[in-house]
Amino acid sequence: MSTIPESVAKVRARIREAAQASGRDPQSVQLLAVSKTKPASALREAFACGQRDFGENYLQEALAKQAELADLELTWHFIGPIQSNKTRALAGHFAWVHSVDRLKIAQRLSEQRPTDLPPLNLCLQVNVSGEASKSGCAPAELAELAGAVAELPNLRLRGLMAIPEPTDDPAAQRAAFARLRALKDGLGLDLDTLSMGMSHDLEAAIAEGATWVRIGTALFGARDYGQPSR
User: Fold this and answer.
1) I need a surface site. Which of 6, 21, 65, 226 has the fewest CB within 10 A?
2) Taking CA 19 as the corner, what is the angle to CA 14 and CA 24, rounded to the nearest 5 degrees?
3) Contacts of 54 (CB under 8 A, 6+ apart)
4) Looking at the predicted structure, is the pLDDT value of residue 229 above 60?
C-alpha cells in the first residue's frame, strides 16, 4: 500500500503527463483532494506534501475537520449534494461549492454569504449522462440557470461540474467530458472552470479541458463508509 506522500506524487505525475500529452500547461490543472470519510490526520499528511485544496461531501464531517485543522491554511470545497438547510453553513465555511444544481440553492448561498468574506466560488453541476440517480441540472436547463446565477451578488460563477456515468472506455469518458466543455463554451459567460475527472478517468478529463480533477481513492485509498457523519 502506498503512503500518502507516494500517492500524492503519483497523482501529480499523472496530471502532469496527461496535460503534456494534450498540449496543455500542467499548471492549468489543479488537484482537489477528495477527503470524505478520511481522518484529519490524512489531510495533514497531504498538506505536508504541498496539497492545499480539499473537497468534502458531508457537511458535518467537513466542519469537524475544519475545526481540527484550523491551524493550517486550507481551501475548502464542497462537492456533495446540497440540502436547503445546509446552505448557511456552506456559505460561511467554504471557498468553493461545486455542486449547485438549483437556483433556490444559489439564491440562499448568495443571501447567506458573510459580507466579510470574498464572493463564494460556484460551479453548476450538470447531469451530462442523464442518470436518474445523479444530481445535476439537465443540459437543456443549464443556460437559464447559469444566466440567473451569474447575476446573484456575493457569488462568483466559475464554471461547470459533472460526475459522468462510470465507464472504463476512454472514448466514452472523453465524450462525456467533451459534452460538459461544449456546454460551458456555449453559455457565452466568462467562465474559467471545468470540475471533472476522478481517480479512474482523470486523463480523459484533462484531455477535454478539466481545470480541477477531484481525486480521492488514488490519494487516500478506498473510502471507509462505516464512519461518515453527515
Assistant:
1) 226
2) 165
3) 32, 33, 34, 35, 43, 46, 65, 74, 75, 76, 77
4) no
